[in-house]
Amino acid sequence: MIQGSCLCGNVKYSITGQPGAIVHCHCQTCRKAHGAAFSSVSAVLDENFHLLSDGGLKSFESSPGKRRFFCPECGTQIYAKRDNTPHIILRLGSLDDDPEVAEEKYIWVSQKAPWYNINNNLPEYDEFE
What we know:
Number of helices: 1
Oligomer: single chain
Shape: globular
CATH architecture: Beta Complex
Helix content: under 10%
CATH topology: Metal Binding Protein, Guanine Nucleotide Exchange Factor, Chain A
Order of helices and strands: EEEHEEEEEEE
C-alpha cells in the first residue's frame, strides 16, 4: 500500500494496486496550478484510491470536465478527475511513499516554460499523447 498526504496533514490517502507510469505535464494549466515548471502525475484506478481523511477537500474545474482536488487549508493538490474516466490523475508531489513506477514521458511540451530545459532521454510530446 502507498500512502500520501497534503502539506498540513489534513488530507490523507492510500493507494492499493499499481499506479500507472509517471508522466510530466508541461501544460500551462498544470504550471499555474502547481507554481512549477511541470506537474508529475500518475493514473490510479478509482477503486484503488482511498481517502482516509478528506480534510474538507475542495475542487476547481480547471477545464471543461476536469476538476482538480486540493486541501483548502494548505493548498496541496492531491488529484484531478476527468468526467467519465475510470481513474484519477494523482499529483505525485503529495506522495509520502515511493510508488515504484518509472517515468514514461513529457507531455504538452509545446507549452513548456521557456526557462526550463528538459535534460534526459524520455520521449517528449507537444500535446497529450
